[in-house]
Specification:
With 221 residues, the protein is an alpha/beta fold. It is built from ten helices and nine strands. It has a seven-stranded mixed sheet with strand order 4-3-2-1-7-8-9. The longest helix has 10 residues, at 76-85.
């Protein structure tokens, strides 16, 4: 049997809302102007996120509760457990920060998930990113180079799936054996002529993997 892995983006893929929008909407309305600057190309992705995460100004208990309220794809947890139960390894690959990702997946009852993301920590009522330029997967734009990480993961597996929703995901999509795409990533990959399977949810992804024989309908309780 082939050794395989499923690698997924987090914000907008496993979760249904980017964490930075929760911060902007609840605590930092000025972040909308920063968002416009970012989208116009005046800021690097990591500059935008670093600023927003440093603008929460709330105690850690409040931030953790906000993280736990992030809505997830309703089938994501079941899908992840199904992949693990049936012989695949599951990875999260995110240009956000592991601070909220690890908090949320632990709260959601998920375990044994490898997380590649920008390291984050709480200090003085805010989340700070610890991005080191000498890190093997450093990216000046994103903090973490998703393509480099995907290629690193591929060294250990016979087949690797990738699933994402936005521009940063177009880079690892070039190296995955099969990419599932939703939202903006679909049109981006079409323009780049990168093969992909358009989907809306993890339920759609699961149906494809069942049809191809990677998964079956048996679920772990």
């Amino acid at each position: 049997m082939k050794k395989w892995a499923f690698v997924s983006d987090f914000d907008g893929t496993i979760s249904l809302q980017d964490f930075y929008w929760i911060i902007i909407e609840k605590y930092y309305a000025e972040g909308r102007e920063w968002y416009k600057r970012w989208k116009s190309g005046k800021l690097q992705d990591i500059e935008f996120l670093s600023h927003i995460f440093r603008s929460i100004n709330q105690p850690e208990a409040t931030i953790r509760e906000d993280i736990r309220q992030i809505p997830l794809d309703e089938h994501a947890t079941a899908f992840i457990k199904n992949v693990q139960y049936q012989g695949g390894d599951f990875y999260i690959l995110s240009a956000g920060t592991d601070y909220y990702i690890k908090e949320l997946i632990t709260y959601s009852g998920l375990s044994h998930i490898n997380v590649f993301s920008n390291k984050g920590y709480f200090n003085n009522n805010n989340i700070h990113l610890d991005v080191a330029s000498d890190n093997w997967h450093y990216s000046q734009r994103y903090g973490i180079d998703k393509a480099t990480v995907l290629k690193h993961i591929k060294e250990k597996y016979d087949y690797v799936f990738y699933y994402g929703d936005s521009e940063p995901d177009s880079h690892p999509a070039k190296y995955a054996d099969k990419t599932f795409a939703r939202e903006a990533l679909i049109s981006i990959l079409e323009e780049l002529d990168i093969p992909h399977v358009p989907v809306d949810t993890f339920k759609d992804v699961e149906q494809h993997l069942i049809q191809e024989g990677w998964l079956n309908n048996e679920k772990k309780n």
